Structures are given as C-alpha cells and as structure tokens.
Amino acid sequence: MKKILKVMRFRSNTVNTGRYYEQKAKEYLLKQVLSDFRENFHSRFGEIDLIAKDDDTLVFIEVRYRQYVDHGSALATVTRKNNKKIRMTAQHFLQKKMVLPTECRAVLMYWE
Question: What is the pTM of this model?
C-alpha cells in the first residue's frame, strides 16, 4: 500500500505581512468613507492590492511595508515600472469590469 503524502502549502512571512498591512489599510480607508472594496485584483500586467469607491471615483490602492529602511524606504520602492504596471492593471480592470467612473486615482499607503 502506497502512502500518500499531503503537501501543505505555507505562505511566506512576506505574504502574510503583506496581507496584514492590506487589511490594516482597508480598515483605515473604511473609516475615511471609501466603500465597495475589491482585494488583490490580478491581471497579466500585475496586481492591485485594493480597489475602492469614493462616490463616483474609483481608487486604486497600492500598499507597501518596510520593516527596515536600510535598503530604502517603502516610498522609494515605487518606481516608474511599478507605476506603469499599476496603470495598465487599472486599465485592464476598467475594461474587464466595464466600469465607467467619472474619475480614477491611485493612492500609495505605506508603513515603515
């Protein structure tokens, strides 16, 4: 009789930490009257951590955390390449969901 090993998949500490700070951002933004949250929208261009509505405005939120700033701040980790990925992912979201908001904006929330 063969033994079947069950492979358990554990998330890395960085993924767990990321989810924790995304939740923390969501809780803060709920107090700021944002609503209709979507979490971790993925496309072939990248991922957007949170998407919310502020009246008729869609808000695309990138969440960053740095435990140590020895290698740069959380703010410094956002590059032109990251901005392009966020913009393309947001455009993909709008096309896929056929959403026509009056405005869109991107927000960076970060902790250090």
Answer: 0.79
